[in-house]
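Hi all, long-time lurker, first post. I run a small reading group and we've been trying to get comfortable going from sequence to structure in the token notation. Rather than ask abstract questions, I figured I'd post a concrete chain and ask someone more experienced to write out its structure so we can walk through it together at our next meeting. Sequence below, copied exactly:
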Amino acid sequence: LNDFENAEKRLLQAYKTNQKLYQALEKLGYMKYLQGDYEMARVYFEKALEIYPESETGKTGLAALEELGV
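-- Answer (accepted) --
Happy to help. Here is the structure in token form:
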């Protein structure tokens, strides 16, 4: 596995263990953003904000996607 795949696997495991772990979703969103998978980035950022509406990373991530028009 490459670094992104390994990190994604571990973050998903952490989230499955504790579904209130919005930080894992923020990181997954950021990783997907860096990989150009903007659809999944949006899904993860929105889910993080559902759990923790004050998530600055979630807000910033969605704003970045809006700037890109996606």
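A couple of things your group might point at:
The mean pLDDT is 96.
Helices lie at 3-17, 22-35, 38-51, 56-68.
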